[in-house]
Amino acid sequence: MRLPRPRGPWSSVVCARLSAEPDDVAAGPIPDGAGLAVLHDEDLQLALWVCYELSYRGFDDVDARWEDAPFVTGVRRQLERRWLAGLRELVPAMPVRPEAVPRALAGLVRADDGPPLAKFVQRRASRTQFREFVAQRSVYHLKEADPHSWAIPRLSGPAKAALLEIQADEYGQGRVERMHSELFRATMRSLGLDDGYGHYVECVPAVTLAVSNLMSLFGFHRRWLGATLGHLAAFEMTSSLPNRRYGNGLRRLGGDTTATRFYDEHVEADVVHEQIAAHDLCGGFAQENPAAAADVLFGAACGLTVEAEFGRTVLRNWAQGHSSLRPGTAGLSDREDLIGA
Questions:
Q1: Contact criterion met (CB below 8 Å) for 179 and 195
Q2: Which InterPro entries match (predicted)?
Q3: Helix count (H) and strand count (E) of the chain?
Q4: Label partner for 110 (CA 20 to 30 A): which of 32, 125, 296, 341?
């Protein structure tokens, strides 16, 4: 994977510096952005995604020494301040008693009125639309579980055991062919998509990057450990039914058992994970760390909010007869101009 093309002044500064040899020069103030809402700020989300990616797989054309260089840590801090300010505007603080955290999480999930993306995909999405959906999701699913795994060394006792139980399933219990990221690769290949890590980053809009950036924001910082766990809980508690619908939608379009296995696996696994995440993980953590109980709900609410906006954005584009991918990236068509499948 190579550095993506910049989308504005912030990502231009970041990509230009990372294209050079690493140095010890700190970051200066970053340029003012376009003033867009954070979930749709292409420049902010791409710049953040690039900074975060240096601590995952990195880029073929970027020296690995940039990861902890003063420029990267400095500019990331500035971008994160703007990212967090935007999130706090979207998600109010939610004080909660530690013992009430599992019940509060269940209430958030019940109250979630996100868009009916899964229903549309199940019943009406064309093959091209389904392929766009999978290409968008690949930004996260090809590293599924990794952002939440930053929490493992920061936990102990029952909460750590609960997280490890969930993550062990995500990583296929140590079997490569059962890792969820590998199952998703099989889904991509069945649809004629390129399964290369990060291949579609150039094509996805800001809100898709925001889904991944939210996990990284919480996962990278020990201060946000509670939010990481809350985000994971919300993810698991809202996953089973949508994945059943995605799998059925792919079957409607002719997908075989290999193509749908990623979704079918989540239907079964996430029913179990839901209870572990809400009670053993988040409930146990809040009891041991009562000052962080509100952070658990903040992380969960942020996850639901960003996912809902992702779904609204995709459906709005499709309803208008447009691709859900970024303008100018050609979309995904039978001619495969973009992916060369």
A1: no
A2: Haem_Oase-like_multi-hlx
A3: 15, 0
A4: 125
- The set of long-range contacts for 131-135, using a CB threshold of 8 Å and a minimum separation of 24, is 131/191, 131/192, 131/193, 131/332, 132/314, 132/323, 132/324, 132/325, 132/331, 132/332, 133/314, 133/324, 134/187, 134/188, 134/191, 134/193, 135/188, 135/193, 135/200, 135/203, 135/204, 135/325, 135/332
3-class secondary-structure state, position 96? coil
Confidence category of residue 327, pLDDT binned at 50, 70, 90? confident
**What's the rounded Cα separation, in Å, for the pair 307 and 235?**
9
Cα–Cα distance for residue pair 50/63, rounded to 1 Å: 13
Condensed to tens digits (0 to 9), the pLDDT of residues 37-55 reads 899 999 999 999 999 999 9
Full-model pTM: 0.94
CA–CA distance, 79 with 253 (Å, rounded to integer): 41
Domain boundaries, the chain: 9-90, 98-319
Confidence of residue 272 (pLDDT cuts 50, 70, 90): confident
Report the distance separating Cα 268 and Cα 295, nearest Å.
28
DSSP 100-165: GHHHHHHHHHHH-----HHHHHHHT--HHHHHHHHHHHHHHHTTTTHHHHTTGGG--HHHHHHHHH
**Residue 200: closest CA among 23, 339, 10:** 339
Average pLDDT score over residue span 321-327: 95
- Superfamily of domain covering 98-319: Heme oxygenase-like (1.20.910.10)
